[in-house]
C-alpha cells in the first residue's frame, strides 16, 4: 500500500439516526447522520410509516386532485350531442356527386 493516499480510518465511527438509534462501526468519516435506519425502517419493523421528505407526498396528492378535476372537466366538454353516422355518410356522398 502506498503511504499518504488513503483517508483516515475511524474504527469507532458513529451513525446517528433521526429516530435516536446510534450505531458504532468503522468508517472513513467519524460521524454520519441518517434519516432512516434498520431500527425504524418499515421493511424491517413491519410498521407502515410514510417518510415524507419536504412535502413530496402533499405535492403529489395536490397534483393528482388537479389532474382528476381537469379530467372531469374534459369529459364534461366531450359529451356534446353528435350527429348520427348515417347523416354524415349521406352528406359526404351528396358532396361527391356535385
Give a short overview.
This protein is α+β, with helices and mostly antiparallel strands and 98 residues long.
Verbal overview:
- The protein has 98 residues and is α+β, with helices and mostly antiparallel strands.
- The chain contains three helices and three strands, in the order βββααα.
- It has a single domain, classed as Rhinovirus 14, subunit 4 (Irregular).
- Helices cover 41% and strands 18% of the residues.
- Strands 2-1-3 form a three-stranded mixed sheet, with no helix packed on it.
- Strand 1 and strand 2 form a beta hairpin.
Q: Strand pairing plus helix content: what structural class?
A: alpha+beta
* Share of residues in helices: 40-55%
Q: Compute the gyration radius: what is it?
A: 32 Å
Going by CATH, the architecture would be Irregular
Order of SSEs, N→C? Answer: EEEHHH
Low-confidence stretches: none
Strand order of the largest sheet: 2-1-3
CATH top level class name: Few Secondary Structures
Terminal Cα separation, in Å? 93 Å
The helix tally amounts to 3
Molecular shape: elongated
* Major sheet details: 3 strands, mixed
Would you count the extended β strands for me? 3
Count of spatially separate domains: 1
Q: Which features does this protein show?
A:
three-stranded mixed sheet; Rhinovirus 14, subunit 4; single chain; alpha+beta; 98 residues; 3 strands
Secondary-structure blueprint:
Layout: E1 10-17, E2 22-27, E3 31-34, H1 42-45, H2 56-78, H3 85-97
Parallel strand pairs: 1-3
Antiparallel strand pairs: 1-2
Amino acid at each position: 500500500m502506498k503511504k499518504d493516499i488513503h483517508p483516515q480510518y475511524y474504527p469507532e465511527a458513529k451513525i446517528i439516526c433521526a429516530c435516536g438509534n446510534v450505531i458504532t462501526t468503522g468508517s472513513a468519516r467519524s460521524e454520519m447522520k441518517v434519516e432512516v435506519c434498520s431500527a425504524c425502517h418499515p421493511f424491517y419493523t413491519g410498521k407502515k410509516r410514510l417518510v415524507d421528505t419536504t412535502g413530496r407526498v402533499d405535492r403529489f396528492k395536490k397534483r393528482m386532485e388537479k389532474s382528476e378535476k381537469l379530467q372531469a372537466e374534459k369529459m364534461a366538454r366531450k359529451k356534446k350531442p353528435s350527429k348520427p353516422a348515417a347523416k354524415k355518410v349521406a352528406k359526404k356522398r351528396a358532396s361527391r356527386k356535385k
